[in-house]
């Protein structure tokens, strides 16, 4: 039940002070662009852009760094002088994708009291940038780091989620032990068929995982974020079926058996018992590693080569429609 209760847990508030993420400013004619490139194709990466059906405005701070000659040439083409404080707008609905790169056209730039429509440069000029936007979905699209750990701990939603997870996993541990015990009780003299029971249990679990994943993808088609409603509905349905079946199980009375140290030692010395224990340990450790680190394969964020956000000389704002 606590696993299912995660569906009703309140979401974290939108975090508007996301860390910066590097993009490239391509200033050219007849238009200038903010360019974001992937190192490799990622499944469903472009769902966020596909979900946009109309103008979508995002306000970003942008810092230029790198080749100073290129930066100077861009400012001269726009007829402005640093330090900068301006707003630029682009239309995400009309963003262009070429290979692994996505281009966001800058429609206008406002610098102080001056507004520049369709800012351009006579020749193609590149400048490295970092951006800091107030739209969580857009920052997630460009792979910005998530909410800082210290900030996360200040929200009650996190602690509610953690509590539900802890109780759910405690319940899962008890359920696994009890289900194995009940399985042996039902098998009786045919306890050697326990492996077959586990096999069919694993087949059922694996099949439901595939079905749940397919339903989630279907429900999330065209959305920027995953919709896990089908998985929770499936969980509730299977839970009630389990409760119905459990009330119909006929389990004979308890049998108390006393084990000795010698009997346990003899079991440990049997190769098949040792192999079973090793498999349980290896699979358990592997599962923990996968579930913990599956979303941490992007590597550390390089920050030494990007400018500090407090540098007043190179900051401006971008509004993305």
Automatic annotation (TrEMBL):
Membrane-crossing residue ranges in chain numbering: 158-178, 199-219, 231-251, 272-293
Domain Major facilitator superfamily associated: start-end pairs: 153-294
Tagged with keyword Cell inner membrane: no
SUPFAM superfamilies, per database record: MFS general substrate transporter
Main localization of the protein described in the UniProt heading: membrane
A Gene Ontology cellular-component term: membrane
Compartments, record wording: Membrane
Annotated InterPro entries: MFS_assoc_dom (IPR024989), MFS_MFSD6 (IPR051717), MFS_trans_sf (IPR036259)
Keywords annotated in UniProt: Membrane, Transmembrane, Transmembrane helix
Pfam families xref list: MFS_1_like (PF12832)
Transmembrane helix listed as a keyword: yes
Membrane topology per record: Multi-pass membrane protein
PANTHER family, per the entry: MAJOR FACILITATOR SUPERFAMILY DOMAIN-CONTAINING PROTEIN 6-LIKE, SUGAR BABY, ISOFORM C
Similarity remark: Belongs to the major facilitator superfamily. MFSD6 family.
Name listed for the protein in its UniProt record: Major facilitator superfamily associated domain-containing protein
Annotated source species: Halocaridina rubra
């Amino acid at each position: 039940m606590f696993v299912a209760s995660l569906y009703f847990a309140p979401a974290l508030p939108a975090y508007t002070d996301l860390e910066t993420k590097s993009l490239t400013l391509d200033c050219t004619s007849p238009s200038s662009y903010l360019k974001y490139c992937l190192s490799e194709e990622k499944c469903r990466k472009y769902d966020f852009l596909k979900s946009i059906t109309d103008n979508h405005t995002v306000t970003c701070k942008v810092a230029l760094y790198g080749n100073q000659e290129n930066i100077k040439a861009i400012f001269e083409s726009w007829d402005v002088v640093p330090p900068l404080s301006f707003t630029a707008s682009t239309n995400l609905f009309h963003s262009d994708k070429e290979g692994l790169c996505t281009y966001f056209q800058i429609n206008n730039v406002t610098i102080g009291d001056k507004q520049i429509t369709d800012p351009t440069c006579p020749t193609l000029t590149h400048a490295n940038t970092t951006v800091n936007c107030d739209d969580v979905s857009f920052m997630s699209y460009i792979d910005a780091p998530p909410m800082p750990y210290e900030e996360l701990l200040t929200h009650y939603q996190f602690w509610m989620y953690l509590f539900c997870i802890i109780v759910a996993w405690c319940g899962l541990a008890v359920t696994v032990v009890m289900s194995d015990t009940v399985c042996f009780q039902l098998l009786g003299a045919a306890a050697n068929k326990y492996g077959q029971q586990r096999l069919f249990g694993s087949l059922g679990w694996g099949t439901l995982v595939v079905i749940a994943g397919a339903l989630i993808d279907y429900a999330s088609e065209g959305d920027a974020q995953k919709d896990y409603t089908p998985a929770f509905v499936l969980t509730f349905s299977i839970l009630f079926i389990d409760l119905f079946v459990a009330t119909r199980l006929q389990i004979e009375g308890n049998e108390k058996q006393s084990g000795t140290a010698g009997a346990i030692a003899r079991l440990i010395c049997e190769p098949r018992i040792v192999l079973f224990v090793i498999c349980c340990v290896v699979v358990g450790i592997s599962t923990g590693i996968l579930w913990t680190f599956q979303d941490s394969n992007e590597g550390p964020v390089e920050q030494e080569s990007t400018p500090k956000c407090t540098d007043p000389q190179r900051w401006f704002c971008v509004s993305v429609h």
